[in-house]
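Shape matters. Shown next:

___
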Amino acid sequence: MNTNSTVDNCSTPSEFAYEIFSGVMIVQFVLGLPLNLSVLYIFVFRFKFWKNKSIFLFNIVVADFLLVACLPVKAYHYQQQQRRSPDTVVCKTMLFMLFLNRGASIAFLITLSLDRYFNVVHLGRRNFVKILKKSPQISIIIWLLLLPLTIPTMLRTFECCNSHGRQIEGPEHDVTDTFREIVFFSQIVIPFIVLVYCTVCIVNRLRKKTVGEKTKLRRAMCVVTSVVIVFSICFLPCTIARAVLLAVRLKEMAEAENVAVQIYDGLMVLSYMDCLLDPLVYCFCNSGFKDAYTTTFCPAFLRKRLLKYDRGIGTTMTTTTTSGTRTISLPITEK
């Protein structure tokens, strides 16, 4: 089989392109670290996630921290014109961390979407997702289930030298690479199909409801829509690019492969944006978190505008009692 030596030795095909990729990751790190630190502070000290049934959201924060921690190392290797670390231990650790973050983010985002789906489309029925998300043990189980899907990325070099279609050393090697590619694509394609189904069902339900019932449905729609945005920006493009890269590689088109590699790596850098977009999901999932974050970190003038906007779209809930109408705000833990 003819091989592309530029890709086989893991050097970057274009110095200029990877300098840009490195700069983008540095920006993501500079923005992502304080953002996720502030989110973590709110979840632990103000919102007390374990009391507000937001354990799944907290796990997404943890997954984002795994990603943010990897960005400086990845950026450094790109500046050195290497697609991965030449040190085997560092390379495997990076792959493990990146793929664990990817799997955890997707798993918990889809779980949140399913929760909104059952609350809206199957209202009144037993929502097993709501029962599961109250238990911290379930989150631990999800992390443990992700390990068998992440460990194969450490057995071979996924990004370049021994990727599928590059070198065939025997049936065992081929099976490992094939399994890894199946995991890579299935963890995006299957959840995205589930997400589209949930979105369509919630939209149909929204159209059938009366005006008085639409506030809760709009919130559910915002949650699912925000998850769709994260998927569409962060996960789908690099998945499509990976499929194109494999197709070009199997056809032994060396020049086209150099271009496909750069596009794939660039879209993988774009996928790291999920550490910046996930807080959008937190705000839509729980208005209590949004209020806690706003009152803690936003300036007074901006805080008033946001709270006024929330009242305009019905973020606070109103219920009718015998004495009239009263407004109930979601609880925010005081400092």
